[in-house]
Amino acid sequence: MGVGHGHGHGDSAAGHAGGRHRWRLSVSFGLIAAFFVVELVVGLVSGSLALISDAGHMAADVVTLGAALVATKIATRADSTGRRTYGSYRAEVFASGLAVLMMLGVAVYVVVAAIGRIGEDPEIAAGPMLLVGLLGLVVNLVAMALLRGGAQESLNVKGAYLEVVADTAGSVGVLVAGVLIVATGHGVWDAVAAFLIGAFVAVRAVLLGREVLAVLGQHVPAGVDIDTVTGALGAIEGVCDVHDLHAWTLTSGMNVATAHLVLVEGADGASVLRRGQLLLREQFAIEHATLQVEGHRSAACDAVTW
How buried is 205 (Cβ within 10 angstroms: 0-12 exposed, 13-18 middle, 19+ buried)? Predict the structure, then answer.
């Protein structure tokens, strides 16, 4: 009987997806924080609900990006307590959860405010609204370009990226509303744009929330089929059975698995361990794998899962 643990180590910041893209979060945070102040002031002066609602979403972005920056710092910091055996990598997942809550909160506020304006035709200063909407679009496009490079690797960066995508849609909505107000002379388009922005933000928040819950619920990593993994491990020469198999995502880019491999009589346990770890790493992108080899089936745990 033996246990093997396969994984790749090195500099924690370099090996952690969120840490590698921290500079993208930093630059985006600076851009959006500066623009938030501009948009809020102009929104209050012009009376535009679309601008104020988009500024509220920008405020959520500032908080979310700030939390993401803190999370990536915490996630790459060595544990000095000896109690966090998995490190602090889950910090980025919690930051993504905060992004979801912030997005949903802003969406509810915007939609309720927009509905409250039904039947009204407020006087809106379309000129400042168009100017700020255009400036916001430029800022968001720059931030999108920065964050897109890390969104596929880090759930934390993806949360920030989706926030900026929603902001970009908000800027487009502000511009369209401004043009319609100028063309028709009716301020109702401001509330319509605000409602659509809120609905879009809510949809993006729900989609990201599902991913966050999947990680916290320790679901099988995206793109990995547990039956396929079982079959592949069972096909290794010297293995007659696979049980107690679990696979989950610790944080973005860090998939983890454990399994018990039952050996055929006379099989080389060390060789089976090496092959199993290599298979999980190369075929399923699971570098952190803890495998236990057994000379016979254990009565204590003979199922593939719990």
Answer: buried
Q: What angle do CA 86, 90, 95 make, to 5 degrees?
A: 165
pTM score, two decimals? 0.69
Give yes or no for residue 122 having a pLDDT over 90.
Answer: no
Task: Kindly tell me if the per-residue pLDDT of 175 is higher than 80.
Answer: yes
Burial of 208 (0-12, 13-18, 19+ CB in 10 A): buried
What does the pLDDT look like over 136-174, one tens digit per residue?
A: 889 889 988 888 877 777 766 777 787 788 778 778 887
Query: 60-71: b or e for each residue (b if 16 or more CB lie within 10 Å)?
Result: bbbebbebbbeb
User: Cα 140 from chain centroid?
Assistant: 18
Q: Which one is predicted more confidently, 50 or 168?
A: 168
187 CB-near residues (< 8 Å, 6+ apart): 120, 121, 122, 123, 124, 181
Cα dihedral 215, 216, 219, 220 sign: positive
For 238, other C-beta atoms within 10 Å of its C-beta total: 18
Cβ-count burial of 219 within 10 angstroms (0-12 exposed, 13-18 middle, 19+ buried)? middle
Q: Which CATH superfamily is domain 226-294 in?
A: Dihydrodipicolinate Reductase; domain 2 (3.30.360.10)
Helix or strand (DSSP H, E) at 132: helix 126-151
Spatial CA neighbour of 62 closest among 34, 23, 82, 101: 34
CATH of region 11-216: 1.20.1510.10
